[in-house]
Amino acid sequence: MFAPSAPRLARDLGVAGLAFALGVGSLAAATAPVGAARKSSRPNVVFIVADDLRTDLGAYGHAEALTPHLDALARRGVRFDRAYCQQAVCNPSRASVLTGLRPDTLRVWDLRTHFRDTLPDAVTLPQHFRAQGYRTVSLGKVFHNQRVGQRPAFPFADPVSWSEPPEFAEGAHWQDWVVPGQPGPPESRGGATQCLEVPDEAYFDGKIAAAATRRLRTLRDEGQPFFLAVGFWKPHLPFNAPKRYWDLYDRARLAPPAGTRAPLGAPALASHDSPELRSYEGIPREGPLPPEQVAELRHGYLAAVSFLDAQVGRVLTALRELGLEESTIVVFWSDHGFHLGESALWGKSTNYERDTRVPLIIAAPAHGTAGASTRALVELVDLFPTLTDLCGLPTPAGLAGVSLAPNLRQPSLPGKEYAVSQHPRPYFNGQLTVMGYTLRSREHRYVEWRSVASGEIVAQELYESATSAAEVRNVIDDPLTQSARRRLEAAAQRLAPPLPQPAL
Hints:
By secondary structure, the protein is of the alpha/beta class. Helix content is 28%, strand content 19%. The strands form 4 sheets. A 7-stranded mixed sheet has the order 3-5-1-7-10-2-11, sandwiched between helices. The protein has a 4-stranded antiparallel sheet with strand order 12-13-14-15, with helices on one face. The chain has a two-stranded parallel ribbon with strand order 4-6. α3 packs across α11 (291-321). It starts with 5 loop residues before the first helix and ends in a 9-residue tail after the last helix.
């Protein structure tokens, strides 16, 4: 089954599970009695994360995406138009957000390494809230997911961060699939899209939304301030959603990908051959995809986005109906973006705009300007200090980010001078030999690729305007860009120092 029961999960956790049961952290035994709701002076937090979602939302001006619930959330909060992840792949990005530390500090750059192996004393965002008197609950993919039956030394769901065992944190994405006539998940990876007449709860995210609405009611009744993390698995591959979400779109009217060639003059290591998509049945193992398959995949992505939006809507509706809306800070973010055929790429794991830029919406009653947007440069690593600031909690020393509370109150503030992201090569696991660092300024995107062994720069890229549409020609050697090049090279040396050779 996809989601084991809480007793089974606790039983299977091994040493880390025993630590959880004994109450690592100061709140192991702090459980408020169920009963009439008691008011707390501290705000609650609902922390919602999507997987592989780029800024294809109505609130971000996307011409096709139908996302009424997230659009409504943006009207209640502040929309960050220039928010960037620290690495465009699931595990490093989520570990960075939830520890408030950059991938190099964590030494987590792939899908296999757990930050507890490399930095065992790190204090996570929910772990810190738990120590400050919050009930912390995890539903869905919040940290990186682990396979069913996999028992690493430290479970990726990080049970010590939560007041109770996490739920819906196990499974592979390809198991989020309906096999007609079969109650459980498939035994092997299938196709990249699925369109069936099934209820929302046939898929992981429908189950997670239902569990979140139920848990909100009990959290309200317990009266303890809470930090509820809800991790949705969509729109990650496979692009499957109940048929009614596919029916929202007319495939014949959907736009094809823009700019389908790799940036002119870009080094080969800046791109990849889209291995994640090509691992699904029916996808060519090499070469371009047929136009009809491109259209189907782009249609499926939008269907999955609308399905995700509906599940977020269920959580937000429950908040309102339970009378929790005005006492709860809602944060919505995605771990990274995604390419859908643009720049000859499918998937994430590059240093380009479509992969590193993410949606970020924060609705903080009494702290923000409702319906505002900001073009401040911000990073996902800023979320940890932002939430401690908004909730009046002490902020741990050593975090890499800064609070975004000032930007909520005054959206015109400029934000950071640079947002920094990175990605290693080889692209997909294997021994890390080159690290690419990218600095996003207001006018440019600069990328330099460094040898991990020597620290020497082996390739560079520079794009003007730094929008996804503008990343078509590498102008690193253009005489007209040399002033920007020198400035960004100097900033990269300061902000992204050479790595020591990792032992992966």
